[in-house]
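Annotated sample (chain length 343).
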Amino acid sequence: MHGDIALAKSLYRASLREVSRLPTEYLRQFFRLKVRDEVTAMLNPNLKCNPDNKIRRVKKELRKLRHANLGHVSEFQYVINTAYGRRGPLRWELMQASRFHSPRTSSLTPILPGDDSSRPPAWSPELVALVGSDLSRQTKAIKPDHIKIPARTPPGRLNPESNEYRVLGRLNERREVNLRRRFFSQALEKTLYPLQVMIRQPSDQRNSSERKDDETPLPKIQVRGTDLEGTGIMEGLNSLARSTTDMLPKAPLPDSVATPPIHSHLPSRFLRRRFRELLATIPILTFTPAPSSSSLGAPEGQYTVSLSPNASPRGKVTQWACADETDEAWIAVAQQSGMPKRR
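Output written by the structure step:
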């Protein structure tokens, strides 16, 4: 036991040294708490887990932090993806904010009579907007028809008026339950979730100004947000991804949303590229209430998905440089000289 405590202290001190070298205060606070929880779990005898696995996990985290501070791209992406909810427990919490607490869950009729667990999965309006946009999907967007009837489910077997239904009969209820659950879980796994929910008031559409839902009280408009509302995390990311040449006069941020300072030994260009790549995986979910929507009860409106203007292009995009007058002159000389073809 004494050896385990000495090893835990050694790993904890080494991890804190690497955490202190991370570029932003948010990353340092996040991994300081994460390392503390993992080291505490190492010394907790009540957890039903192999101690070697817990030690191996802390060593792996330390190795990732060390390589990220050395400027390795994949390890640095692992660090920021973990801290901003692209993977790990924070991603699961963001997924629950978009999935659960739907008022339509209890109104769905069970597929199997008398079995409440066979109710179809409830697609909240936020989740429908996310899975229906290519900007918030790791794969292709889901069609609206597939939300009603999942893919790989024969629609004719569910329609009593179809010839397939008359010949083959109705699709087995248990199979329908399994198909809907599997399709729903796969849709959740391949979806990117926002950090905050924005609200665009109808009166502000003329200047396209967007406000966070913490500026309009959530209980009044009853629009669900995430646990990161009011933290200024998206504003901080945009300021980190914006180059010095892109700095334009903008509205001052609130006192609680200060521009995060960067104290890092890594090149600023490297950091800016990594944060722009991160913004390309963080969709912006915006709710626009209808003009006739009442402030009492669930508001009527539309959810839209977009990306930050500072985000890097999605996918591998090759940007070719434009040919200037000198390049065009050399191309003309090469065409006139009749360069030999390669064999």
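Annotation: The radius of gyration is 26 Å.
Annotation: DSSP finds 13 helices and four strands in the chain.
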